[in-house]
């Protein structure tokens, strides 16, 4: 009798489990929108956000492509529906900036947290989907005070969007080349050091090395306290630490900041970000020099001029207009910049070393002549068109440049993912 009762209970338990299994919501599509209110308001913390994505919006195809399941491994950001984005942005009322690949709108979450919503244009274009995947898979893995935080994303049949923390002071280029107020030199130095720390984290502290591929003032964003955060990971590449070089399929980056090897059909390393950061250092110091001589445009040939002044022992003359207490820092930044922009990637320092040099914790080696032709190793195979210059390769600046942009237009489209 007892045995029969036990068997009945076991069968009942199995049937109940099967029923639950048949109706269970997958882990990638759990929860209610109430969880959006749990997002912290304080953007200064470097703690990661780990919120289960909301359920697939009603009326959408409940079958999720197998390719999308690969997103599950980095699904820390919240999955928003296009309807939620429309509410969040007030039907896309406030444009913060726009570019070739998308438009950035100002939004507000239910708990009052301000966000920047980057909506991609031509969202179903293969190249655009690759950039979308690059951003989610790279910044979605990060947790650092000097990296822009990704709160969530929208990936439905009509909309591809990324939801970032809102950066009150926009991008660094507005302070360097735009009409933003002048900034204290000490704060400029802090921005340089903070940016270097963010890049060093990407290169050396993540489980997989992340190469940003587009470091420039427009992608260095500033919060309410003017603390820097690296943003815009649309061109980023992830690769194992065991791999020393990666091959790019086409030019990546921005002219004037991209390393020489980026425009050639050769494998590249994370040192391409080091080169770009060196050019940013020249921009920062150059802005202060320009202010001293009442020049509003970037100073041409500053790297070469710095090299000649260093060789002739006259570097101090370049920074004579700086406050006396800050001249040593300015000379240090110029010398580090020369180390960073060497044409040979292997000569450039690691970003963790750059941080120490900028902070004065280690001595700066005498820079080698940085402008000699790079001796790059050719790959075993070439795709043929990798050295072509792509004028549209720079990604949308999330540093808000303003402009006239329209809100997203809903389209009927197939849900398709870029492979890889």
Architecture overview:
InterPro entries: Kinase-like_dom_sf, LRK10/LRL21-25-like, Prot_kinase_dom, Protein_kinase_ATP_BS, Ser/Thr_kinase_AS. The chain is α+β, with helices and mostly antiparallel strands and 420 residues long. The protein has 2 domains: 25-165, Phosphorylase Kinase, domain 1, CATH 3.30.200.20; 172-359, Transferase(Phosphotransferase), domain 1. The protein has helices spanning 2-23, 66-69, 82-88, 126-139, 172-176, 185-204, 271-292, 302-311, 315-318, 327-340, 351-359, and strands at 78-80, 95-98, 102-108, 114-120, 150-155, 160-165, 209-211, 220-222, 228-230, 237-239. It has a 6-stranded mixed β-sheet. A two-stranded antiparallel ribbon has the order 7-10. The protein has a two-stranded antiparallel sheet with strand order 8-9. Helix 6 packs antiparallel against helix 7 (271-292), helix 6 (185-204) packs antiparallel against helix 11 (351-359) and helix 10 packs antiparallel against helix 11. It starts with a helix and ends in a 61-residue tail after the last helix. Mean pLDDT is 73; it is low at 17-75, 292-299, 375-404 and 411-420.
């Amino acid at each position: 009798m007892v045995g029969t009762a036990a068997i009945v209970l076991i069968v009942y338990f199995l049937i109940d489990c099967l029923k639950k299994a048949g109706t269970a919501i997958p882990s990638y599509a759990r929860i209610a929108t109430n969880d959006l209110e749990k997002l912290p308001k304080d953007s200064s913390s470097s703690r990661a956000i780990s919120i289960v994505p909301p359920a697939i919006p009603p009326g959408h195809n409940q079958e999720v492509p197998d390719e999308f399941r690969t997103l599950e491994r980095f699904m820390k950001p919240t999955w928003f529906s296009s309807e939620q984005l429309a509410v969040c942005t007030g039907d896309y009322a406030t444009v913060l900036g726009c570019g070739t690949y998308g438009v950035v709108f100002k939004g507000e979450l239910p708990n009052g947290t301000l966000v920047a919503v980057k909506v991609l244009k031509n969202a179903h274009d293969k190249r655009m989907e690759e950039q979308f995947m690059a951003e989610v898979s790279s910044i979605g893995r990060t947790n650092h005070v000097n990296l822009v935080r990704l709160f969530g994303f929208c990936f439905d049949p009509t909309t591809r969007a990324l939801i970032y923390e809102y950066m009150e002071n926009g991008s660094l280029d507005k302070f360097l080349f735009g009409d933003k107020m002048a900034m204290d030199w000490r704060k400029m130095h802090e921005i340089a050091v903070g940016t270097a720390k963010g890049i060093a984290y990407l290169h050396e502290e993540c489980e997989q090395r992340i190469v940003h591929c587009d470091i420039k003032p427009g992608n260095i964003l500033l919060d309410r306290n003017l603390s820097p955060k690296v943003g815009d990971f649309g061109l980023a590449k992830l690769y194992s630490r065991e791999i020393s070089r990666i091959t790019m399929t086409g030019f990546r980056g921005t002219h004037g900041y991209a390393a020489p090897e980026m425009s050639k059909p050769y494998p590249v390393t994370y040192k391409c970000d080091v080169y770009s950061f060196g050019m940013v250092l020249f921009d920062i110091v150059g802005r202060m020099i320009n202010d001293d001589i009442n020049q509003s445009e970037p100073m041409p040939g500053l790297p070469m001029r710095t090299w000649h002044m260093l060789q002739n022992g006259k570097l101090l003359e370049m920074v004579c207009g700086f406050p006396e207490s800050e001249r040593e820092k300015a000379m240090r930044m110029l010398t580090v910049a020369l180390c960073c922009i060497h044409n040979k990637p292997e000569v450039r320092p690691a970003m963790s070393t750059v941080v120490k040099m900028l902070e004065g914790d280690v001595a700066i080696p005498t820079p080698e002549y940085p402008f000699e032709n790079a001796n790059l190793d050719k790959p075993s195979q070439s795709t043929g068109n990798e050295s072509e210059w792509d004028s549209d390769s720079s990604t949308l600046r999330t540093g808000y440049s303003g402009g006239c942009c329209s809100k997203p237009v809903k389209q009927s489209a197939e849900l398709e993912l870029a492979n890889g």
